[in-house]
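Hi team,

Below is the intake form for FAD-binding monooxygenase from Streptomyces bauhiniae. Please confirm the fields before the structure is written into the shared record.

FORM ID: S-0412
PROTEIN: FAD-binding monooxygenase
ORGANISM: Streptomyces bauhiniae
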Amino acid sequence: MTDVQVPVLIVGGGGAGLTASMTLSTLGVDSLLVSALPATSTLPKAHVLNQRAMEIFTEVGAAPEIYRRGTPPEHMRASAWYAGLAGPHENYGRKLGELEAWGGGYTDPDYVAASPCRTCNLPQIRLEPVLKEHAEKLNPGGVRFHHELVGLVQDDDGVTATVRDKDTDTTYQVRSRYLMAADGGRTVGRLVGVEMNGQRDIMKMLSIHMSADLSPWATDDDVLIRWLVNPDFGGSFSGVLVPMGPDHWGPASEEWVFHMQYATGDPDAMKEDRVLARMRATLGLPPELVPTVHRISTWTMEGVIADRFRAGRVFFAGDAAHRHPPTGGLGLTSAIHDVYNLSWKLAAVLAGRAGDGLLDTYEAERKPVDQHNIDSAIANALNHFTIDQALGLSPEKTPEENWAELAPLWQDLPESAAKRHALNRAIASQTMEFHHHNVEFGYRYASTAIVPDGSPAYVPLDPVRLYEPSTRPGHPMPHAFIERQGERVPLGTLVHGGKFLLLAGEEGGVWVEAAEKLASENGVPLVAGTVGVLDSDFIDVRCAWLKNRGISPAGAVLVRPDRYVAFRSLGAVADPYAVLRDALSQVLSTELR
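The structure came back. Fields below:
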């Protein structure tokens, strides 16, 4: 195999690495992706893709196929809790409660107003082949599986990596300006001395990917995740059941994944016959139903983060930078957001439009968000035990004692009202996981690539559940549909290919002129226009932008290529060119003319 020279080497072929390959390609940056694995994931792994992730997949062109293969919205409107799935008496499988989740299948007006993209559900085992196929189309020959990084050396100008072709057992050199580590922490971190810190052993979990007809018991058509609070096994985390498709969803799903906690003290607990017997007992499957088991895997729930996201010319993203409990669906989506943040910055530096300081803002912006997401995911996981507490369930009690604790729910007893109230309150608290719109969509950045405008710090009404659009620097650009040359398009589509976006009020034409002149004289890709109800470059037909723009008709908002507000002027200024020049110089860590 011949040696390779490329601007960016990506190590790792999972969700983060493949997304990085696609985003760099759409930015015009050549890259090479190498993965030690022979193929994409054979495990179900993560499955919920939030609105921000789907916006990114829309930008790189992969979203239509992801939506086509994913769960239809009518089958992912809720998460629900049950007393097991099936069993020998009528109370097995009874619903304990249900919550609307993920925007209720894109019916929640807050979710519709936040983004043109709805949340999607597609297990990683099915997502990654879609991403790989699309990455290969965008970068033919630039995606190599079964090619393992075995060494790297950095110098002032770049990284020299040694890669082994595992099919031919030959090695070759890859010379790159930068290396993006998206290998799940397997290799690169060890080679450059980056360490992971945090909670390493929160819970031991086991997952079974199987084919089975569960439609007689999994009857709720709109429920995606079934939490089986089985009194026979002590309550929460005795079982979680999620449909896998691939051809049908809801109760008709052909494949399922079953997750359960397992005890580490029993040396025989992981024997296959014990595992399958435990699964059958938890689900209450009749003897005649024999699932086809595709894969049994074990994993440790942890919440850890790298001590650095940058080590010289090496950057860490996804599981190589942070690992989360799955509760809340923040792991894979955070990985996607990582590489989206980093890719436009690499592209700007490689093109000579930005200084190296811009690359330092990757860690400054993403590490606090990723740490917050880890903390949220851990809190979500532990919060499930409040349901056990409300019901009085415990692994220390016998199955008979646990079932007796549930009896007041379904009978008219003196303690019934209090028990139902406690359960309903515990389930309502799970909105911190299933309706955490501000966590997944409203996260904010603070770095030198953001120019403060002196406005008061944002204080959310609910920091978890309520996303409130804002153009304050550091916030994501609010969504709005506008009309451009007679075509109705999301405002966010104007930000693509590494371009900045300058949006001025209807009286802010001088901002547009200044931005276009600045872009032309400095080679900064930029789109500029006024937004208003009448006589503007972009027509705000429904006043959606007006409601959230936060500026006067003479003001302006500058949006970065990753759709984050970089700068805002609330009104007119004496010299808009100088103001914009200084702002963009700070953002790009360079001196513009």
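SUMMARY LINE: The chain has a mean pLDDT of 96.

Thanks, M.
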